[in-house]
Every structure is written in C-alpha cells, then in structure tokens.
Amino acid sequence: MAMMDKSSLINIQLAVERLQNADILSPQPDITTILSHSFHIPRHRAITGDFVLSEEEWARFHETIGERATHAPLQYILGKCDFWKYEFNVTPDVLIPRPETEHLVETALNLLPSRGKKLIIDCCTGSGCVAISIALERPENRVIGCDISTSALNIAKINKNRLSADNCSFLATDMLTSFAPSSVDLITANPPYVAEEEAPALQPELGFEPRKALFSGNDGLTHIRSLLKQAPVLLKKKGYLAFEFGYNQGEAIRELVEPEISGKIHRFEIIRDLANHERIGVIQYA
C-alpha cells in the first residue's frame, strides 16, 4: 500500500484553489482525471492523495492545471475523450464528443439490423466518433464519415486506424453533396446547431472549439435545413435520417419536418436524452 504523502494533499489543494479562483466548475473531478490520465494514478488514490509524485512530475501537474485554469477544455489538454465504448483522440480541430451524442449512435444501431450489408453516411463527422462507433458495432456495414474540414478528417483517420475500424472511411465534402442519389440506407448527423446570437452567453470552454462545428446561422438551423433538403435525395426507399439538435430546438424541428409528412416522409420521431431533453430526430422517408 502506498504511503500517504502530505505533499500530495498540499499540491492537490493548491490546484483546487487555483481552479476555483479561475471559476472552473469542476475542479476536483478535473484534478482526478489529470492525475489518472497523465500520471497513471488510480482514481481512488488520486481522490484521497494516497500516492507519490516526483518534483518534476508535480511541476508538470501544475503546468497542466495552469492550462485548465485558462478554461481550455480538459479533453484538448489530455488529447483524448471517452465516447461510447472507446477512447478517441481529440484536438482543437474537432468538436469534443458529448455524452448526449451517444444517443445518436444508439438510435442508429436500433435502426440497423445486426447482420446485413448497409451503407451509412455520417455527416459532419468531426473526430469520427459516431461513424467509427457504428462501424465497430456493425462490422458488416460500410460507414463513410464526411466533413468539410480536412483537419478534422485527419483526426478521424487517426482514430479509425487506432481502433481498427476497417469498414469505415472518410471523405472531404460539404454536407452530402458528393453522394449518389438513392444509394444510402442510413444518414446520421451531429451538425452545427448553435445560434450565432447565443455566442456571448456560452461557457468560455466553447471558445476553444472550432467555430464552424458549433454555429449554424442566426437561428442555429442552417445546417439542419440543408440536411433535410439533401437527405431524401440520397436515401433509398424507406431509408432513415437520424440527427442531433439542440435541447431547445424540438419545436423548430417539428415546424421544419411536419409539413412534409403527408408526402415524402413515412415516419417521424423525436427521441429524448437522459436529461429528458428532446435531442434526436428520426425520419424515415417513403
């Protein structure tokens, strides 16, 4: 059993105070994560201070705390983020995967049979977390992640290779403009959906994320409108579109989709996340 080291408790307390003074909302969990990921301290020991670090390691620890005190997201500092069942590389070139986006993966898997060869397009793929997670869960299917950002796609390709998602590939394109009509079984998308006017009120951490991956016009719906226009052309008969939207956009999504239900839409559903927010739209086209 490791000996309790008072210097550990002192350094942890200094770090807590520094993060609190910087208005970081979760100082203790962040410190525990830094110690666990960067110094391989078991989380229970990181919490209790039951571990020993060298002076050089403590210096690196406080340097990392300094980065976090600027409100740089912890995922960018560590270069990794847990999503679904996997760990993904992330940099400021990609949006940080959120837990609520796992509902998009879950929804896609519920729409896909466990066996069979289907073509899935993941639009606005970013780090590739959705595309790769689906590909690993459905190895007989082919998944293509597309994004307008080549820098983001470079990260997605690193994640694909590291996780051996051999049935997943990536394509640089603007939304869905590079795919053949009536060729796709399922389209997933976590598009930008934050309204430009909301920018001043957002948490400072969001200022470190790629603006193009966050904002979508004055009302936050520009990309979703494009998605709703392009998807029916690409999907096969009875094909599906599953997309994420903002927690307060459910009514706006209904207003965009419901006028089309009597014509080209066979089924429309909105799925709530674990916080009971409307989060995922599912459309099956006729």
Mean pLDDT: 95
Number of domains: 2
Using the CA coordinates, give the radius of gyration: 21 Å
Task: Supply the CATH architecture of the largest domain.
Answer: 3-Layer(aba) Sandwich
CATH topology of the largest domain: Rossmann fold
Order of helices and strands: HHHHHEEHEHEHEEHHEHEE
Largest beta-sheet details: 7 strands, mixed
- What fraction, in percent, of the residue positions are helical? 25-40%
Task: Quickly list its features.
single chain, 286 residues, alpha/beta, Rossmann fold, 2 domains, seven-stranded mixed β-sheet, 11 helices, 40% helix
Describe this structure in words.
The protein has two domains: 6-70; 85-285, 3-Layer(aba) Sandwich (Rossmann fold), CATH 3.40.50.150. Helices cover 40% and strands 20% of the residues. The protein has helices at 6-21, 27-39, 43-48, 55-69, 74-78, 102-111, 129-137, 150-163, 211-214, 222-234, 250-257; strands at residues 80-83, 86-89, 119-123, 142-147, 168-172, 184-189, 235-244, 265-272, 278-285. The strands form two sheets. Strands 5-4-3-6-7-9-8 form a seven-stranded mixed beta sheet, sandwiched between helices. A two-stranded antiparallel ribbon has the order 1-2. Strand 1 and strand 2 form a beta hairpin. Helix 1 runs parallel beside helix 4. It is elongated, with a radius of gyration of 21 Å. It starts with 5 loop residues before the first helix and ends with a strand.
